[in-house]
């Protein structure tokens, strides 16, 4: 019965890492702007789809991934500059609808450009599985987990050491005070959109060799990312990453031991139970609502 | 009820009655039916979101639960159609009543997530419980609606029924909004603690409006199932929940006429965009963004602003 457990754990952690990176993107934008960005899943999709597109155009794999991530980061910044900033401090629901509109636009554009097919991407370093504690581990899984860890460590450094990171934290803490201290809240908002585009796209690009990618993968990944960030406690970046991993593992165990048909439901059932028991998420503070 | 309310209700009845006459063929009557049904759900959701300030990202689930319940009751179990309709509305009401208590304790994004999770779980069940629901390929063979011996087989008859139900729902919504409960809801929206201090039973008021909105969605769901005689899970997924919210916000929060306008506009929009073939999805997304950027209070707010402007001009 438990024979499959290590296998499920590995695949759960791999997918969970992407949920975690998506959740991290949600958190970064939420912290600096108070917006839940429903186009977050589209960043993840862009990471995968653009990598494939650049590969097809002849770029070597590392360059293709890097380009895809950069272009997505740029797209994130453009979204903030183009449709979020002009609206200013309007109602949260309106901003959410705007991000939904943007996600429809991005998805539609990708569909028109590359069609509705699912695309495969080659693994970074071969596809020969390694045996680890009775689980067949794809090398790509190791890539996914280590890149996720590197990104997390880099973000930790960014937030605690760099002036921009500290400025973003200041915006999250108290916008007015941050503004009075000479921080450009607008520029921080743009930076947070770019950064979450970067992180989301990185997640999409490293997962694409495992799960295929297509114009519409962003919807479910975005929802799971949102779930992960609520699970971890909204506003807490490392809670978000942990929430993603937990969600991925739960889902993988649920699919393995109970029923694969209801795979996508497990994550949400667990989340609902948790929300009803502890309404601010696993690592959330006593109360945090900004709507 | 004020004379203004009575006048607008009469005008609405006239508009609903005249609408089919302006249309070239039955295909458009079909779209009108869908407009009415969506308007019905959106009106309920607008009371929940616009008046009480509670977001639901899972309202498609109530619509779907009712549609599937009546489908199973009539096609699988062979019950009479009116019993199916009752069962459908009862199921969505009951489910809403049960999940309202834990769900409505949540606030802001947590509430959004809980309702979203509920909606997704329900739509996954529609997809996976193949023996009961027919799975992804859908549920076929739902009988047409019959009521006291009259069969609603033609689209025109069905439209008359749906428009009538929508009109009645509008009346009910107005009564609720003008009532003590309606004022309580608006108070909750502004400040829960202040509302509580004024002696309002917050949990009860929220539960009432949540269940009421599920009843609206349930009625729409049963009519939808018996109109199309076919239901598939894709009609009740996350995407539809988002569309419903978009209709509420685009129409204008806390405005009954806004809800109707938003629903009619967004339901018929894809039909107008058909001629742009594949680009329609881009236009849909773009319009959504543009409307929200330039009309933050929705269509209702936009019209109000225009009227104010015209009034000022007229006065000099």
Automatic annotation (TrEMBL), chain A:
InterPro entries given in the database record: ABC_transp_permease (IPR001851), BCAA_transport_permease (IPR052157)
One of the record's GO cellular component terms: plasma membrane
Subcellular locations according to the entry: Cell membrane
Signal sequence residues: none
GO terms (BP aspect): amino acid transport
Membrane topology (UniProt): Multi-pass membrane protein
Membrane-crossing residue ranges in chain numbering: 6-28, 61-79, 91-114, 141-159, 189-211, 265-285
CDD domains for the chain: TM_PBP1_LivH_like (cd06582)
Keywords for the protein's UniProt record, in alphabetical order: Amino-acid transport, Cell membrane, Membrane, Transmembrane, Transmembrane helix, Transport
Record protein name field: High-affinity branched-chain amino acid transport system permease protein LivH
Source species of the chain: Fundidesulfovibrio magnetotacticus
TrEMBL record, chain B:
Cellular-component GO terms for this entry: plasma membrane
Listed InterPro entries: ABC_transp_permease, LivM-like
Chief location: membrane
Subcellular location per the Swiss-Prot or TrEMBL entry: Cell membrane
Keywords (A to Z) from UniProt: Cell membrane, Membrane, Transmembrane, Transmembrane helix
Example of a GO MF term: branched-chain amino acid transmembrane transporter activity
Transmembrane segments: 27-48, 55-75, 81-101, 108-126, 157-177, 208-225, 245-269, 281-299
Pfam families found in the cross-reference section: BPD_transp_2 (PF02653)
CDD domains for the chain: TM_PBP1_LivM_like (cd06581)
Protein name from the UniProt record: High-affinity branched-chain amino acid transport system permease protein LivH
Species: Fundidesulfovibrio magnetotacticus
């Amino acid at each position: 019965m438990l024979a499959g457990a290590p296998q499920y754990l590995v695949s759960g952690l791999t997918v969970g890492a992407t949920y975690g990176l998506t959740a991290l993107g949600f958190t970064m934008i939420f912290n600096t702007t108070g917006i839940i960005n429903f186009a977050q899943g589209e960043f993840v999709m862009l990471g995968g789809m653009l990598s494939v597109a650049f590969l097809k155009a002849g770029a070597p794999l590392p360059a293709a991934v890097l380009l895809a991530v950069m272009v997505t980061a740029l797209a994130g910044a453009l979204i903030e500059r183009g449709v979020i900033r002009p609206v200013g401090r309007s109602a949260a629901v309106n901003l959410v609808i705007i991000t939904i509109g943007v996600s429809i636009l991005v998805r539609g554009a990708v569909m028109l450009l590359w069609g509705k097919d699912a695309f495969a991407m080659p693994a970074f370093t071969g596809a020969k599985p390694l045996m680890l504690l009775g689980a067949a581990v794809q090398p790509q899984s190791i890539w996914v987990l280590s890149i996720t860890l590197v990104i997390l460590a880099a973000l930790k450094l960014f937030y605690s050491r760099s002036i921009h990171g500290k400025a973003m934290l200041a915006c999250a803490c108290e916008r007015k005070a941050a503004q009075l201290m000479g921080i450009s809240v607008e520029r921080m908002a743009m930076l947070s959109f770019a950064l979450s585009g970067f992180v989301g796209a990185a997640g999409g690009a490293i997962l694409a060799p495992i799960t295929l990618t297509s114009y519409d993968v962003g919807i479910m990944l975005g929802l799971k990312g949102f779930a992960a960030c609520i699970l971890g406690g909204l506003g807490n970046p490392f809670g978000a990453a942990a929430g993603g991993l937990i969600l991925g593992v739960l889902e993988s165990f649920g699919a393995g031991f109970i029923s694969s048909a209801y795979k996508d439901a497990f994550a949400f059932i667990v989340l609902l139970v948790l929300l009803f028991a502890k309404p601010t998420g696993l690592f959330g503070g006593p109360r945090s609502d900004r709507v | 009820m004020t004379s203004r309310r009575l006048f607008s209700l009469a005008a609405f009845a006239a508009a609903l009655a005249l609408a089919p006459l302006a249309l070239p063929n039955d295909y458009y009557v079909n779209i009108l039916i869908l407009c009415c049904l969506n308007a019905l759900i959106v009106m309920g959701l607008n009371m929940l979101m616009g008046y009480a300030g509670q977001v639901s990202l899972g309202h498609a689930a109530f619509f779907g639960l009712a549609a599937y319940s009546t489908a199973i009751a009539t096609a699988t179990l062979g019950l009479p159609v009116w019993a199916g309709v009752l069962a459908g509305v009862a199921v969505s009401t009951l489910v809403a009543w049960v999940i309202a208590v834990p769900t409505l304790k949540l606030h802001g994004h947590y509430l959004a997530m809980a309702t979203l999770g509920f909606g997704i779980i329900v739509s996954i069940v529609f997809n996976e419980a193949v023996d009961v629901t027919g799975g992804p390929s859908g549920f076929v063979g739902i009988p047409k609606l019959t009521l006291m011996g009259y069969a609603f087989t033609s689209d025109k008859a069905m439209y008359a029924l749906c428009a009538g139900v929508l009109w009645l729902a509008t009346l009910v919504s107005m009564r609720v909004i003008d009532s003590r409960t309606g004022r309580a809801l608006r108070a909750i929206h502004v400040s829960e603690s202040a509302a509580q201090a004024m002696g309002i039973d917050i949990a009860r008021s929220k539960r009432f409006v949540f269940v009421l909105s599920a009843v609206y969605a349930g009625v729409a769901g049963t009519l939808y199932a018996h109109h199309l005689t076919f239901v598939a899970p894709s009609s009740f997924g996350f995407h539809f929940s988002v569309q419903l919210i978009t209709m509420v916000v685009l129409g204008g929060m806390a405005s009954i006429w806004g809800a109707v306008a938003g629903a009619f506009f967004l339901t018929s929009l894809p039909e107008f965009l058909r001629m742009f073939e594949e680009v329609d999805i881009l236009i849909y997304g773009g319009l959504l963004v543009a409307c929200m950027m330039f009309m933050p209070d929705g269509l209702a707010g936009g019209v109000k602003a225009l009227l104010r402007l015209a009034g000022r001009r007229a006065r000099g």
